[in-house]
Amino acid sequence: MAVWALNVSMEQNNATMDVTLTEHLSAVDNTDDPRSEAMRISMAEHFEDFEYEYREDPHTDAEVVHEDDQVIVVADHTGHELNEWMSDFNMTDEDRDAFYAWNHEVARELTDHNWAVVDPVVFDKLGKATRHVEEEHQ
């Protein structure tokens, strides 16, 4: 009897995990991404170049709080990184608002991190960013 209950519990957990993963993937895919293809690629390359700092460096003010097969969500404790991306890509005020809101919306959907005093930065994984560009041009 105990073995059967364990199997049922494991099946329920697996079903829950599958639903959760599907919800996470659809949250990113169904949220209008205001970033240009150049920005998506630039951000993905940036994360790859500075991955050690985001993941390992104890002196950085940012940390990876979520990762799946599509995106990496970084918590920026200084709030500077979103502003730097907005400046680097010369965003208008309207574009800045959309970019800021998109990062927060995706991060809230994918994590249970408290974003009240921390800015999330959502990076596509490099393969996803380049695949997305290829799909747009087909």
| Proportion of residues in helical segments | 55-70%
Spans of 5+ residues with little confidence (pLDDT < 50)?
A: 1-26
Average pLDDT across residues?
Answer: 80
Taking the sheet with the most strands, its summary is:
3 strands, antiparallel
By DSSP, the count of extended strands is: 3
Assess the beta-strand content as a share of residues. Answer: 5-15%
- Count of alpha and pi helical runs: 6
Name the structural class.
alpha+beta
Global shape: globular
Return the string of H and E elements.
HHHEEHHEH
Largest sheet, spatial ordering of strands: 1-2-3
- Number of discrete domains: 2
Radius of gyration: 17 Å
Q: Note the gap between the termini.
A: 55 Å
Description of the structure:
A hairpin with a 3-residue loop joins strand 1 (62-67) and strand 2. The protein folds into 2 domains: 1-30; 33-136, no CATH class. The radius of gyration is 17 Å and the shape is globular. With 138 residues, it is α+β, with helices and mostly antiparallel strands. Strands 1-2-3 form a 3-stranded antiparallel beta sheet. The protein contains 6 helices and 3 strands, in the order H-H-H-E-E-H-H-E-H. Helix 2 runs antiparallel to helix 6.
What is the fold's blueprint, element by element?
Blueprint (H helix, E strand, L loop, with lengths): L1 H28 L7 H13 L1 H5 L6 E6 L3 E6 L3 H9 L4 H18 L8 E6 L1 H11 L2
Antiparallel strand pairs: 1-2, 2-3
Helix pairs in contact: 2-6
Short précis:
The chain has 138 residues and is α+β, with helices and mostly antiparallel strands.
